[in-house]
């Protein structure tokens, strides 16, 4: 009964769409032969497409309703990933397998694949860094790429002028970015939500414009080239080994990041961030220093971006301001939102999808932005909590018996 | 000799042209339960917001003195979190719990200003940090036991019944180890049974030596709980005294009931 009803509605929608699109899709005026052509097959396509889209949507809607109606169902579908995460044994096995794959990856696959994977890993770290700011502390930052640029340029310039190596600049780049995080943090402490987003967006653009226009400092739009690749205790590698080396550095980087972010989340500071996200006034009334807590979030997020900036400069050996546009910030933010705000595993998966998909679907690259937008809209409608919703590990108190 | 824990003198708060508080004096002695009452809009919550640093008062002084010492610190111009650190913790009229955190975590947040671990402690999780976390957990649980919420310890705050949420707010405030506990209409919206339980709880906390200043509309509760009562109207103090005195005070009756028309 329900099905027939839905089918009827879908039919109605299809007819309505044929009617609406009739003037553009069906009628075609041929000015040369002075006739009007009727392209009936187009009407059929419109009908088929709208009919199926409507049915799929109503099916999804029904399933969603059914799931929310039955809470147990939710828990079951709150899925395999969470059950694995909560099971220490399975988790250990899984992480061991992933680590093993990660280690042999460059031996099996080509240099090109390794390079692509390195990029994906970089975005994992960027996503996790932004996740501290957006996911945990709830501060919407649209200028994250600025800190990435600070890291990249600090390596490029220090290398260019003073010949400093990768390993020396790595911490310097991170710290410089963290300082910039604090510089940005101070004026925006009072802002929330949309206003904060606008100011951070502006900050990101300011950094890019400075790099573009202050030629004496940054060599302007032409960028800086010939940045040295990282060395291994003074040994320089050939291009191929170097790419592999870069890959292993990033694997290590991801592991360290996951470890640190995880620990931050389960700490006094992490609790304060969550509380700050929930209710700022109550938070202050409970003795949490809003300024210190927010600045900590900004600078820690920026720190990771700075580190990856250094890695980026070393990997590409050439940087210019065009690499640090708003689009970059948007992609990193999408990684966090798509993956699931606050969820570490979600952000990792989000980064892989958003970075690897366009890489392997190069043939469809013209439609990349279109698909991107479509996916984001669909996500917001059907799964606003992200692919892997963040189920925070809450503190449990078990009475000792 | 100094038995006063809170001393407010000449507190004035202007919002543009409106004087919400007009040169208010108030004091709380150690171990007392003091109530602040007054008709709606009299400025009671504004008073709370002024002494806890949410508003910056236009004029006046607020002093808080810790037990055992004669020195007192001025709270004027401090930020809300600094005020809490100095020993003034409050609850809110409209409940402001951290809804998506568990009951235990809510109380743990209250411990924040009495603990130290920061970024490095969080990342390296050294001995001191672990011990601190453990003590936060234990103290928080002990406080929850005190207010009778231990059976809800791992539930989300938003899922608690209304009365329990109110008590959780009290627990969270107690976790900051306040010298003086400020309760902003703790019984608002409670049913009679819950009010009785709340009264028992407040008496219990008070019997442990906790000084309390509360705003409340429920007169039965105020009369049975408080040692002294301050009455406000239109931002001014119109009376102060013991419950018995306040009950007979003509100015208070006038403020609450209005004047006789045919006088």
Structure description:
Helix content of chain A is 75%, strand content 2%. Chain A has 401 residues and is an all-alpha fold. Chain A folds into two domains: 2-77, no CATH class; 109-382, ABC transporter involved in vitamin B12 uptake, BtuC. The longest helix of chain A has 30 residues, at 40-69. With 263 residues, chain B is an alpha/beta fold. Chain B folds into two domains: 1-87 and 178-263, 3-Layer(aba) Sandwich (Rossmann fold); 98-176, no CATH class. In chain B, the strands form two sheets. Chain B has a six-stranded mixed sheet with strand order 6-7-8-3-9-10, sandwiched between helices. The relative contact order of chain B is 0.17. The chains are: A mainly alpha (401), B alpha/beta (263). At the A-B interface, helix 11, helix 12, helix 13 and helix 14 of A face helix 2, helix 3, helix 4 and helix 5 of B.
CATH C-level class of the largest domain in chain A is Mainly Alpha
User: What distance separates the N and C termini of chain B?
Assistant: 48 Å
Which sequence of strands runs across the widest sheet of chain A?
Answer: 1-2
Radius of gyration of chain B: 19 Å
Q: From the 3D coordinates, which CATH architecture of the largest domain in chain B would you assign?
A: 3-Layer(aba) Sandwich
* Number of H/I helices of chain A: 17
Extended strand count of chain A: 2
Look up the CATH topology of the largest domain in chain A.
ABC transporter involved in vitamin B12 uptake, BtuC
- The proportion of strand residues of chain B reads 15-25%
Number of helices of chain B: 10
CATH architecture of the largest domain in chain A: Orthogonal Bundle
Structural category of chain A: mainly alpha
Question: Strands of the biggest beta sheet of chain B: in what spatial order?
Answer: 6-7-8-3-9-10
Q: Summarize this, please?
A:
With 401 residues, chain A is mostly helical.
């Amino acid at each position: 009964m329900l099905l027939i009803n839905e089918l009827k509605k879908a039919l109605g929608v299809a007819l309505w769409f044929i009617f609406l699109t009739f003037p553009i899709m069906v009628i075609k005026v041929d000015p040369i032969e002075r006739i009007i052509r009727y392209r009936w097959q187009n009407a059929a396509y419109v009908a088929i497409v709208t009919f199926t889209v409507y049915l799929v949507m109503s099916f999804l809607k029904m399933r969603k309703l059914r799931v929310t109606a039955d809470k147990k169902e939710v828990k079951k579908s709150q899925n395999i990933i969470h059950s694995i995460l909560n099971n220490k044994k399975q988790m250990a096995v899984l992480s061991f397998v992933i680590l093993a794959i990660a280690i042999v990856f460059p031996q099996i696959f080509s240099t090109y694949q390794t390079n692509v994977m390195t990029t994906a890993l970089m975005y994992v770290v960027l996503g996790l860094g932004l996740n501290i700011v957006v996911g945990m502390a709830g501060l919407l930052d649209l200028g994250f790429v600025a800190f990435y640029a600070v890291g990249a340029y600090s390596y490029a310039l220090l290398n260019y002028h003073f010949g400093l190596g990768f390993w020396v600049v790595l911490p310097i780049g991170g710290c410089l970015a963290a300082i910039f995080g604090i510089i940005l943090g101070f004026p925006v402490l009072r802002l929330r939500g949309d206003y904060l987003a606008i100011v951070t967006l502006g900050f990101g653009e300011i950094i890019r414009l400075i790099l573009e226009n202050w030629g004496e400092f940054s060599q302007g739009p032409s960028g800086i080239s010939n940045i040295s690749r990282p060395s291994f205790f003074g040994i320089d590698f050939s291009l191929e080994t170097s790419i592999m080396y870069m890959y292993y550095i990033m694997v290590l980087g991801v592991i360290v990041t996951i470890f640190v972010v995880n620990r931050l989340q389960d700490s006094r500071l992490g609790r304060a961030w969550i509380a700050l996200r929930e209710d700022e006034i109550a938070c202050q009334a409970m003795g949490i220093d809003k300024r210190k807590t927010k600045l900590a979030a900004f600078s820690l997020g920026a720190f990771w971006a700075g580190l990856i900036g250094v890695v980026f400069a070393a990997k590409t050996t050439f940087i210019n301001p065009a690499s640090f546009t708003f689009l970059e910030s948007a992609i990193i933010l999408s990684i966090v939102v798509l993956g699931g705000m606050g969820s570490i595993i979600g952000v990792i998966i989000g980064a892989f999808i958003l970075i690897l998909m366009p890489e392997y679907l190069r043939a469809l690259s013209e439609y990349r932005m279109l698909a991107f937008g479509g996916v984001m809209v669909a996500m917001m409608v059907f799964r606003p909590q992200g692919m892997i919703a963040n189920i925070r590990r809450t503190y449990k108190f078990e009475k000792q018996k | 000799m100094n038995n006063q824990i809170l001393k407010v003198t000449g507190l004035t708060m202007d919002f543009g042209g409106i004087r919400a508080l007009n040169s208010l004096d108030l004091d709380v002695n150690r171990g007392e339960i003091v109530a602040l009452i007054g008709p709606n809009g009299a400025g009671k919550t504004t008073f709370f917001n002024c002494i806890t640093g949410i508003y910056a008062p236009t004029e006046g002084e607020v002093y808080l003195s810790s037990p055992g010492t004669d020195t007192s610190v001025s709270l004027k111009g401090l930020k809300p979190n600094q005020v809490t650190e100095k020993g003034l913790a409050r609850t809110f009229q409209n409940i402001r719990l951290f809804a998506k955190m568990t009951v235990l975590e809510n109380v743990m947040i209250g411990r924040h200003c009495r603990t130290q671990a920061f970024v490095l402690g969080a990342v390296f999780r050294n001995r001191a940090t672990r011990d601190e976390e453990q003590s936060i957990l234990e103290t928080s649980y002990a406080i929850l036991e005190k207010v009778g919420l231990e059976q809800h310890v791992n539930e989300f705050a938003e899922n608690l019944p209304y009365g329990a949420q109110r008590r959780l707010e009290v627990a969270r405030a107690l976790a900051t180890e306040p010298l003086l506990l400020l309760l902003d209409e703790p019984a608002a919206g409670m049913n009679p049974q819950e009010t009785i339980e709340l009264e028992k709880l407040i008496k219990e906390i008070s019997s442990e030596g906790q000084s309390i200043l509360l705003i409340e509309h429920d007169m039965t509760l105020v009369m049975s709980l408080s040692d002294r009562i301050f009455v406000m109207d239109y931002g001014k103090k119109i009376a102060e005294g013991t419950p018995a005195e306040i009950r007979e005070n003509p100015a208070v009756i006038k403020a609450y009931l209005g004047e006789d028309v045919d006088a």
